[in-house]
Amino acid sequence: MKIFAGTSNLPLAKSICSSIGLELGKCTVSSFPDGETFVKIEENVRGEDVFLIQSTSPPSNHHLMEMFILMDALRRASASRITAVLPFYGYARQDRKDQPRVPITAKLVANLLVAAGANRVLAMDLHAQQIQGFFDIPVDHLYAAPVMYDYIKQKQLSDLVVVSPDVGGLKMAHAYSQVLGAGLAIVAKRRKNATEIESMTVIGEIKGNNILMVDDLTETAGTLTTASALLKKEGAKTIYACVSHAILNDLGIERLRKSNIDELITTDTVLRPAIEGVNITTLSVAGLLGEAIKRINCNSSVTSLFEFKGGRTS
To answer: Are residues 20 and 123 in the same domain?
Structure first.
């Protein structure tokens, strides 16, 4: 088994290798003067079970193309199996035709991954579960939840209510509430456009409780910050937000600085510079991904990583 990585999140790739006692494979990734990506695998991979780690975080198109080129190089170097490890799967929000004449880009990315040489995929907290069905190759879907649970349990929060900031995240919120023994509530929203929310309503008992909002992804933080303002108005005490992938652009950072969110709990699936003025706790999923890679390599069960109290995390 050998593990290689693109340039999108090298610290995570090194942590994954460290967690399973392997060296990160040597490869050169550089650019021609016109911006074209050039890669070279610097060691023998003939007949090897290869895992390629790359998050499709911004700049998304650049990191995707880099991954395709790395996979092509590995395939042409006679790797026996290539597993695309995507801690963050970009374009996942474009998973259906919700307007006339729009693409289903999540499916396009799936097709491109297979065309580039992927024999299987390992992803974490996909925006929509059905994306697994866009592939005709095996997909192992991991959840960051076990890492989140451990951290939240250490806080020993009383009167905890888990809140889904939109109806689509209800299943995830329900799983958190079951494991943490907490209440459950939903914020029903109506979206105006990609960055603005028009109206929101809370369904559930909030007053006097500590709140844990759970979501898979935030970029502009519009949903989280608008929901937190409404929850505070309804009488919430402390508000925590738990998000697997916090990409956070300038607008999102500005909104979080002004928001009622006391702590944003996230993971290292995407590389993010230090942000001042926002209380962010970044938990590592390297151990989880490393264990999954080991199990895939030796054909063991990955599902058993996510069994809690006799049930699944999601």
So the answer is: yes
Catalytic pick from 171, 189, 258, 309?
189
Tell whether 39 and 157 lie within a shared domain: no
Q: Among 164-168, 193-197, 237-241, which stretch is predicted with the lowest mean pLDDT?
A: 193-197
Tell me the percentage of the chain whose pLDDT exceeds 70: 94
Q: Which residues contact 274 (CB under 8 A, 6 or more apart)?
A: none
CB 29 within 8 A of CB 37: yes
Which residue range forms the structural domain that includes residue 306? 2-143+287-312
Q: Is 129 exposed, middle or buried (0-12, 13-18, 19+ CB in 10 A)?
A: exposed
CA-closest candidate to residue 277, choices 292, 263, 257:
257
Contact 249, 280 (CB under 8 A): no
- Considering the domain architecture, whether residues 63 and 9 belong to the same structural domain is answered as yes
Please count the structural domains in the chain: 2
Closest CA to 293 of 50, 12, 5: 50
**Would residue 189 show up in a list of annotated catalytic residues for this protein?**
yes
